[in-house]
């Protein structure tokens, strides 16, 4: 198989675009594609200082390198962010992840911040798993959201980019239809405006890029990343979620471009009417402990409430 653009050997076939590309032409193609997507969805409008959330996996490390290229073209500042969640499970998962994230930050010579949740907030995700009744992945999501908003505020970031890829989006959409989670679906966007009370917007630059393409880009460009996935993830939605993901991949094999159509049509045609129907503008109150925004009628935010349940914060302590 030869590259469509030169005489080199093709390393990847992109069936939905009906092309095969060599190493260099594939990298160039993906970089252009990302730039086109970012422009089409106005991801970089008014952007000055962007934080990239890097877990150390293939998606977020590739995103970091792609955003680095864009920062040179569009002249915005880049800050690397890694959250050490304290997930060990006998495998040292978090510490290895942080190592890979830092390796990439230093490789590119960009400013970065590592937040160690244990040091900063007094507990680890592993500890929360045993002590808190809610599923561990939902606690983890809460911790990540809170920490990212907090760093954005402290570092003066106007934008945070995360590494959700096309396969993640397709899986989320299909399982949202399946379970009727209209509120979650109506909030799924490539560019999310700031949460009430915050100033930072969140973008998902990889949302139309296939997992396979990201992996290929990481490999051919020798981006260091951690292969292990979180030791807790097998619990997210359990076997059903896995099956939905695998079925989507099978559909993709039979109908090239299936996931792309599913996600692009959802975002371009379905999400907005859903948002209009289901998302209500909520008023916010101020958490009496940390001062951050919380839902109206609550005086303690769910993050501080979690810290209280973990026994690392007392309700009377105030700030
Ligand atoms: Zn070529
Ligand atoms: Zn709070």
UniProtKB/TrEMBL annotation:
It comes from Stygiolobus caldivivus. ATP binds at residues 53-55, 59, 83, 163, 168. One of its GO terms (molecular function) is transferase activity. Keywords: ATP-binding, Metal-binding, Nucleotide-binding, Transferase, Zinc. Gene3D superfamilies: HUPs. GO terms for cellular component: cytosolic tRNA wobble base thiouridylase complex. It holds the Pfam family TtuA_LIM_N. Zn(2+) 2 binds at residues 287, 290, 301, 304. Zn(2+) 1 binds at residues 3, 6, 22, 25. NCBIfam families: TIGR00269 family protein (TIGR00269). Residues 50-229 form the tRNA(Ile)-lysidine/2-thiocytidine synthase N-terminal domain. PANTHER family: ATPASES OF THE PP SUPERFAMILY-RELATED (PTHR11807), CYTOPLASMIC TRNA 2-THIOLATION PROTEIN 1 (PTHR11807:SF12). One of its GO terms (biological process) is tRNA wobble position uridine thiolation. The keyword Transferase applies. This is PP-loop domain protein. SUPFAM superfamilies: Adenine nucleotide alpha hydrolases-like. It comes from the Archaea.
């Amino acid at each position: 198989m030869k590259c469509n653009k030169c005489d080199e050997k093709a390393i990847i076939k992109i069936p939905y675009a009906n092309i095969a590309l060599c190493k260099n032409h594939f990298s160039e193609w993906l970089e252009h594609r990302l730039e086109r997507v970012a422009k089409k969805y106005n991801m970089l409008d008014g952007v000055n200082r962007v934080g990239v959330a890097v877990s150390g996996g293939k998606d977020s490390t590739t995103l970091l390198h792609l955003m680095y290229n864009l920062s040179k073209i569009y002249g915005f500042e880049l800050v690397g962010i890694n959250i050490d969640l304290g997930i060990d499970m006998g495998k040292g998962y978090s510490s290895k992840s942080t190592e890979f994230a830092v390796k990439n930050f230093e490789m590119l010579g960009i400013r970065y911040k590592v937040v160690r949740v244990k040091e900063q907030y007094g507990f680890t995700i592993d500890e929360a798993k045993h002590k808190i009744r809610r599923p561990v992945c939902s606690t983890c999501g809460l911790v990540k959201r809170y920490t990212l908003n907090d760093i954005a505020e402290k570092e003066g970031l106007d934008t945070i980019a995360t590494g959700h890829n096309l396969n993640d989006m397709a899986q989320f959409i299909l399982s949202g239809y399946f379970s009727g989670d209209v509120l979650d679906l109506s909030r799924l966007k490539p560019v999310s405006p700031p949460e009430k009370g915050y100033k930072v917007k969140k973008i998902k630059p990889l949302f139309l890029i296939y997992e396979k393409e990201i992996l290929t880009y990481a490999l051919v460009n020798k981006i260091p990343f951690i292969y292990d996935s979180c030791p807790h993830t097998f619990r997210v939605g359990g076997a059903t979620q896995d099956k939905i993901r695998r079925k989507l991949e099978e559909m993709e094999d039979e109908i090239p471009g299936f996931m792309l159509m599913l996600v692009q049509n959802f975002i371009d045609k379905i999400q907005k009417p859903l948002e209009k129907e289901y998302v209500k503008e909520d008023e916010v109150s101020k958490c009496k402990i940390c001062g951050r925004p919380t839902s109206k009628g609550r005086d303690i935010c769910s993050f501080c409430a979690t810290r209280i349940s973990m026994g690392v914060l007392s309700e009377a302590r105030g700030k």
